[in-house]
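quick one
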Amino acid sequence: MLEFSNFEMTDLSLEKQIEWWKAIVHSINDGVLVIDHLGIVRLVNPEYLKITGCTPAMIGKPLKESRPGALLPETLIDQKTRVGVYRKTGDREYVVDMAPITVNNQIIGAVSICKSLTEVHKLNQELKQKGEKLEQLQKKMNSLYQANYTFKQIIGKNRGLKEAVHVAERVAETDLSILITGESGTGKELFAQAIHNESRRKNQPFVPVNCAAIPPSLLESELFGYGDGAFTNAKKGGKIGLFEMANNGTIFLDEIGDMSYDLQAKLLRVLQESKIRRVGETNERRIVVRIIAATHRDLQQLVKKNRFREDLLYRLNVINLHIPPLRERKEDIPELVDSILQSSVTNLELEHVPADYTVDEQTLAFLQSYEWPGNVRELKNMIDYASCMVEGTAIKIEHLPEILTKNRVVSPSLQVNSVDKPLQQAMEEAEKNFIQETIKRFGTGIEEKKKVANALGISLATLYNKLKRHHIDF
Ligand SMILES: Nc1ncnc2c1ncn2[C@@H]1O[C@H](COP(=O)(O)OP(=O)(O)OP(=O)(O)O)[C@@H](O)[C@H]1O
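structure w/ adenosine-5'-triphosphate:
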């Protein structure tokens, strides 16, 4: 009920006050109609005329005259407020709120406020469109954050690898945190995706984050998001973080060993409390996320050097999966090569090679003799390159990248029974030359030896063996 009894506008003359009130009513975005206690129309605003299609001629006449079905005069009698009354005149639809106007407990009139449903329909339509857009974005986001691999795609019969697959399959359905260790390119993300796809979270996002690729100063806001105006250049309205994106799914924290010590403490708190706080905000948001972390670093060593928090290591390392490097599972190379060849034809859209092209025996033996510092990723890149270069039905040594064949880094345990002696000899010589070239680059001395071994992608012990075998003084 509208009460005017306490209204004061002492500074204005009566005329001015009326003008003032009319201006207010006219500027209202809803339709307004006022009748006096006799049911005579005293005031209508332009929006009312627009919504109902009435004309200003109705002013000064009984409302029932221009609108015989009007309910407002009844409000004068029963003094009831009516809300959301649906009205339709021709093709005009609108809803009306009605209320009596009282001054000093006396009914002096009634007011009707109406809102066009055409407007509401339009807003509804807009809302629907926004909803559809949101759904599309959600789908897009889910497809961006989708895990593609399953355990079936993990190739290898090596004992260490099979053991890792076995454990991963057993723990996939649980929510236990997993730490995957192994050199770069060994398949850590492949494992993480397969675990996610085998879990009950498989229809939820899988969000990979490379902690080493994001500048430390940005990593916190990338992980946890930020609030409105959290810092200069911050997006208006703030930004959702990767943890929130991964809600109900899995977050894969790759290269966790590269995370700053300070951020490690914040991450630990998030893991313990299942709550995140966006940078610059005070409120916390609950999240349910499965954590899989990975690193090529020795985290125990980093703990000893005070560069990794021991408490975080224990929290992440509930299950440890170690993926052996490719040089320790060379028996898997032929099968990996076969699978890469098959996918190369389709992925690279190669038209110049037959679907059943292969790698010839000598080349395969060479691939098995190489140390693969970049592991399966490097093998895949090499085969993809050779697939583009191949002429005929089989990849030969000359189709491999020059850098690989010129700088052959071959393992001491070269098992190439089927290989012609000249190739073996050539490879031995190439290895010797390559080691000598690398020594020239780095120089001599114990530290330099380490650098040489590093550059060659082999251990110091292997380097010593090779030096002895090739009679190289160092
Ligand atoms: N056992 C395997 N079977 C089939 N493909 C594999 C296997 N291991 C690795 N790959 C392939 O090798 C490539 C590199 O794997 P992935 O990215 O998972 O390695 P990573 O250890 O996570 O590397 P990084 O530490 O550099 O991030 C991918 O294309 C992956 O599909």
